[in-house]
Amino acid sequence: MTGWVQQLIADGGYLGLFLLMFGETVFPPIPSEVIMSMAGLQAAKGTMLLPAAILAGTAGAMLGNIVWYLAARRLGLDRLRPLIERHGRWLTMDWAEVDRGERWFMRHGHLFVCIGRMLPTARSLVSVPAGLMRMRFLPFLLWSSVGTLGWSTMLAVGGWVLGTRFAAMEAWLGVASTVLLAVLGGFYIWRVLTWKPSR
């Protein structure tokens, strides 16, 4: 995984980094942990400037975030309702939960968007509820940018500090992402097995 990412960053520079982070956001299995850490490693070698690499990665990820936000906003809750009513068990929700979620999101949506951008695996999905709940675009853009910048900075600085010890960092981040994915998968299975529609 790291070989072709490193090559694309080395050949494409900031544009290659921008495109990799855009692709990572649209297609989450491409890991930002590897991409931004490799960018930090390139900065440590002197082939990139660390602040410019962080900004390029953040810009690419934000473009992907906006694509998901606009797609979810276009879908909207009204078009989602028949799907929830028909497949509520597998989605582990009913419309009463959507109503409660919408009220909660109106109060705490900015925190959800900002903090969610810094969670491995889940960070690419944050735009979907924001778009469905029709969060205003400027607050979405602001809080997404803050969270995405924080995540990109942490990874890039980590790659820059570790230098040749990048493999150790990649292994640690890989374990953390796998554990989080397992927890989310287990939680989903538990929800399916125990789900009952609201009365």
From TrEMBL:
<keyword id="KW-0812">Transmembrane</keyword>
<keyword id="KW-1003">Cell membrane</keyword>
<feature type="transmembrane region" description="Helical">
    <location>
        <begin position="140"/>
        <end position="163"/>
    </location>
</feature>
<dbReference type="InterPro" id="IPR032816">
    <property type="entry name" value="VTT_dom"/>
</dbReference>
<dbReference type="InterPro" id="IPR051311">
    <property type="entry name" value="DedA_domain"/>
</dbReference>
<feature type="transmembrane region" description="Helical">
    <location>
        <begin position="12"/>
        <end position="30"/>
    </location>
</feature>
<feature type="transmembrane region" description="Helical">
    <location>
        <begin position="50"/>
        <end position="71"/>
    </location>
</feature>
<protein>
    <submittedName>
        <fullName>SNARE associated Golgi protein</fullName>
    </submittedName>
</protein>
<feature type="domain" description="VTT">
    <location>
        <begin position="30"/>
        <end position="159"/>
    </location>
</feature>
<dbReference type="GO" id="GO:0005886">
    <property type="term" value="C:plasma membrane"/>
</dbReference>
<keyword id="KW-1133">Transmembrane helix</keyword>
<dbReference type="Pfam" id="PF09335">
    <property type="entry name" value="VTT_dom"/>
</dbReference>
<keyword id="KW-0472">Membrane</keyword>
<feature type="transmembrane region" description="Helical">
    <location>
        <begin position="169"/>
        <end position="190"/>
    </location>
</feature>
